[in-house]
């Protein structure tokens, strides 16, 4: 028998709940949890939820954005990044999270899915270090 | 002084430019036995190089629905779950260049001989599609191995793939080393790829090549037995990429894979760890393609495409002489012939222990020089008949004169083809010896004096049959005058030899 992947389960859950009332959705989700328990797949619930999130994002054309900076960004800058992302990924909605990490020294690191745009000073210094070692 | 250092550093920093672009990043989900399973990396290609957070390199081999399987090419003990993995958008490549000649490199092309950095200007991908039909031409130039049994009976041509197959301790590597040693002054670059061999064996081999002056035209690529299987897997591809660099410059290259059995075992290990389905002898389904795509890169290019060549001598180790096992049959079918070495012959003192009956060269005869063809033409048949008669002669005592003569000739042929290790013989000397043998001049020389006769004859011929030897060297064939001169020299020498 073919192995059931978290993606398969997430797709099944999405199809079963799509267009249903809240009460029906609740019932379906309860049944899903029971099935997962029976099939000993509860341990995979983290990956199932991730896969479900991806499916919903794809259907609703939502882009999830993660921005990490050394200092807190101003509201204008945050809006600017969100807007640019919306245009680049042709999304209807952008859900963004902003984090501050002092060790980056400066610049911005933008993550959308598995694509990363890293303009932080830390990354640049690491690249310079590698370049100087190689040229030596 | 310090100003100078600062100035240099400033210049280098000024030359450094950062290109800011989006990168494909994934996360390590699982690490075990040199394999990493990673999530993300959605657009990564098979065979693409990836770098881990600590600077380790890996190659993507498995593309699955949610994860990618990566083989790690360095120490994997520092890679942890959750670490970042970056795609590089480059297929794995190794540095190539003239500076690599005389050096010992690891599977990634980095020097391991302690002689400092290797300055190379270019890099080549390790996986490349073999040269097409349009660029190729037939094998028509010989590779002189210096081993009489091979040059006479199983000739190898430039661009050929000739398998060396045999059990352990039958002299497979010895043939390869002798061939490298004999390439001095033959306008050939040699690449020796050591796969899963002991470091002590590699060191011994390197010393032997250095002593013979062969490191001036040889590159050694090594993936030792203590290194990860991933390196054993890529080492032959690294070797052939280096060989292709020289071939593209119109040079002739000889590459030796020692050995492909261990290469197949390393690939089996990786495949099983990546959970690919096992097939016969637990090898994965694509083990034939593993070797066919490697050996197909051996070729002889035509003049329009530079005229270079890659001659390949893959080595396969059999278990108890079983040449019908999976890997031996695969490689036999891919190559253009095989040199079969036998344990029984080895312990009988026939060294190199080449079994002439099982050995074959499918394309080499067209590359053999005319003089050698003429003297060795009937030798293979004579030897085959001798083996058959020898078996029968054990049962009967009364043999007719013709059979007796054939047996005596056969015994002398076996004796002549024996050759100690590290003592390759140049082609014109081989021609003299085989001329004397096949024309019956050795028939009445006592069997235990054949070696003495042979060495004495060569010395004598070099003084008294100069025309014959120079014709063989320059025109690759003798004239009637040269032949008469040699006949006289052999007859004179024999008279002196037998009366002493």
UniProtKB/TrEMBL annotation, chain A:
A cellular component annotation (GO) from this entry: proton-transporting ATP synthase complex
Keyword Iron: no
Keyword presence, Ribonucleoprotein: no
InterPro entries: ATPase_OSCP/dsu
A Pfam cross-reference name: OSCP
Localisation: Cell membrane; Membrane
Domain of life: Bacteria
UniProt-recorded Gene Ontology molecular function terms: proton-transporting ATP synthase activity, rotational mechanism
Family: Belongs to the ATPase delta chain family.
Main location: membrane
Organism for this UniProt entry: Candidatus Nomurabacteria bacterium GW2011_GWA2_40_9
Signal peptide residues on this chain, from the entry's feature table: none
Swiss-Prot/TrEMBL keywords: ATP synthesis, Cell membrane, CF(1), Hydrogen ion transport, Ion transport, Membrane, Transport
HAMAP family found in the cross-reference section: ATP_synth_delta_bact (MF_01416)
Function description: This protein is part of the stalk that links CF(0) to CF(1). It either transmits conformational changes from CF(0) to CF(1) or is implicated in proton conduction.
Membrane topology: Peripheral membrane protein
Name assigned to this protein: ATP synthase subunit delta
UniProtKB/TrEMBL annotation, chain B:
Recorded GO CC terms: plasma membrane; proton-transporting ATP synthase complex
Residue numbers binding ATP: 166-173
Site-annotated residues for Required for activity: 359
InterPro entries registered for this protein in UniProt: ATP_synth_asu-like_sf (IPR023366), ATP_synth_asu_C (IPR000793), ATP_synth_asu_C_sf (IPR038376), ATP_synth_F1_a_nt-bd_dom (IPR033732), ATP_synth_F1_asu (IPR005294), ATPase_a/bsu_AS (IPR020003), ATPase_F1/V1/A1_a/bsu_N (IPR004100), ATPase_F1/V1/A1_a/bsu_N_sf (IPR036121)
Tagged with keyword Kinase: no
Family annotation (Gene3D superfamilies): 2.40.30.20, ATP synthase alpha/beta chain, C-terminal domain, P-loop containing nucleotide triphosphate hydrolases
ATPase F1/V1/A1 complex alpha/beta subunit N-terminal domain location: 25-88
Domain annotation ATPase F1/V1/A1 complex alpha/beta subunit nucleotide-binding: ranges: 146-361
EC number: 7.1.2.2
Main location (coarse class): membrane
Gene Ontology MF terms: ADP binding; ATP binding; proton-transporting ATP synthase activity, rotational mechanism
Function of the molecule: Produces ATP from ADP in the presence of a proton gradient across the membrane. The alpha chain is a regulatory subunit.
Family indicated by similarity: Belongs to the ATPase alpha/beta chains family.
Record-given protein name: ATP synthase subunit alpha
Species the sequence originates in: Candidatus Nomurabacteria bacterium GW2011_GWA2_40_9
Gene name of the record: atpA
């Amino acid at each position: 028998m073919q192995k059931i992947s978290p993606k398969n389960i997430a797709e099944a859950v999405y199809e079963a709940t799509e267009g249903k009332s809240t009460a029906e959705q609740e019932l379906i989700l309860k049944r899903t949890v029971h099935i997962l328990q029976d099939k000993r797949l509860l341990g995979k619930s983290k990956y199932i939820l991730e896969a479900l999130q991806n499916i919903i994002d794809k259907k609703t054309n939502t882009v999830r954005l993660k921005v990490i900076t050394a200092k807190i960004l101003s509201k204008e800058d945050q809006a600017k990044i969100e807007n640019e992302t919306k245009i680049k990924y042709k999304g209807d909605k952008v859900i963004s999270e902003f984090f501050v990490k002092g060790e980056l020294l400066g610049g911005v690191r933008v993550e959308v899915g598995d694509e990363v745009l890293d303009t932080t000073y830390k990354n640049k210094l690491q690249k310079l270090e590698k370049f100087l070692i190689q040229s030596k | 002084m310090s100003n100078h250092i600062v100035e240099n550093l400033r210049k280098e920093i000024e030359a450094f430019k950062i290109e800011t672009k989006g990168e494909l990043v994934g996360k390590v989900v699982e690490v075990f036995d040199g394999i990493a399973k990673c999530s993300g990396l959605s657009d990564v290609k098979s065979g693409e190089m990836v770098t881990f957070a600590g600077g380790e390199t890996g190659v993507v081999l498995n593309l699955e629905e949610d994860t990618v399987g990566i083989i790690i090419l360095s120490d994997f003990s520092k890679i942890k779950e959750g670490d970042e993995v970056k795609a590089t958008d480059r297929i794995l490549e190794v540095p190539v260049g003239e500076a690599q000649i005389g050096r010992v490199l690891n599977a990634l092309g980095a020097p391991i001989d302690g002689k400092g950095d290797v300055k190379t200007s270019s890099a080549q991908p390790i996986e490349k599609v073999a040269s097409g039909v349009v660029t190729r031409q037939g094998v028509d130039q010989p590779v002189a191995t210096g081993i009489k049994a091979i040059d006479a009976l199983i000739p190898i041509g430039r661009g050929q793939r000739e398998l060396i197959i045999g059990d352990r301790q039958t002299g497979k590597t010895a043939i390869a080393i002798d061939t490298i040693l004999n390439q001095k002054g033959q306008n050939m670059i040699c690449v020796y790829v050591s796969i899963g061999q002991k470091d002590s064996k590699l060191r011994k081999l390197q010393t032997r090549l250095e002593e013979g002056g062969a490191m001036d035209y040889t590159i050694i690529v090594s993936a030792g037995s203590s290194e990860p299987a991933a390196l054993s897997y890529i080492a032959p591809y690294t070797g052939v990429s280096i060989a292709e660099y020289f071939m593209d410059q119109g040079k002739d290259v000889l590459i030796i894979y020692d050995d492909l059995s261990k290469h197949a075992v390393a690939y089996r290990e990786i495949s099983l760890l990546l959970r690919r389905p096992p097939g016969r002898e637990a090898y994965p389904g694509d083990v034939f393609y593993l070797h066919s795509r490697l050996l197909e890169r051996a070729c002889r290019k035509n003049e329009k495409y530079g005229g270079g060549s890659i001659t390949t001598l893959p080595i396969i180790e059999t278990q108890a002489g079983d040449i019908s096992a999976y890997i031996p049959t695969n490689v036999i079918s891919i190559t253009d012939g095989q040199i079969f070495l036998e344990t029984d012959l080895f312990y009988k003192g026939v060294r190199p222990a080449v079994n002439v009956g099982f050995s074959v060269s499918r394309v080499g005869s067209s590359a053999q020089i005319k003089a050698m063809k003429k003297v060795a033409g009937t030798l293979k048949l004579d030897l085959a008949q001798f083996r058959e008669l020898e078996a029968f002669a054990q049962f009967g005592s009364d043999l007719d004169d013709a059979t007796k003569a054939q047996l005596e000739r056969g015994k002398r042929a076996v004796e002549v083809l024996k050759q100690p290790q590290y003592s390759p013989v140049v082609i014109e000397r081989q021609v003299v010896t085989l001329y004397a043998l096949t024309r019956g001049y050795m028939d009445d020389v006592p069997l235990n004096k054949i070696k003495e006769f042979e060495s004495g004859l060569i010395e004598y011929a070099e003084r008294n049959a100069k025309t014959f030897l120079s014709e063989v060297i320059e025109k690759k064939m003798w004239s009637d005058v040269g032949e008469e001169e040699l006949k006289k020299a052999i007859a004179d020498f024999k008279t002196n030899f037998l009366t002493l």
